[in-house]
Amino acid sequence: MKDEFLAAAIEEAKKGLAEGGIPIGSVIVHNGKIIGRGHNRRIQSGSPTLHGEMDALENAGRQPAKVYKESVLYTTLSPCSMCTGAILLYGIPKVIIGENKTFMGEENLLFSRGVITEVVQDEECISMMEKFIADRPQLWNEDIGEE
Fold it and tell me: Of the listed 4, 11, 53, 99, which one is catalytic?
């Protein structure tokens, strides 16, 4: 049985894909409750920074520092350097990553800074990203800053 919070992040990724965007989703959980959810909306919003993790932070709204320091961030894909920076900035102590097979983000930086980082290699996350990368390589390369 899939973790309910990873499942929620996957649902966010599917929303992004249905909107014509990149299928990466994220949720922020505090005391067993989702306080922020989001998905990559760079394409939909014309934004250079609206990755899934950033959207979840934005949708969590302004929170006391203590809340972030007690939260877990779930994301369908290994966080890029920008999202990793936000995780470190807000002191989120634990990150659950759906997969890092299609993209290896800054997990080593998270680990080096004491963030508990768990990669689950979820098959649904992997297949969703593999299909997207194969179908829309230009959008994927744009998202990760490659072309």
Answer: 53
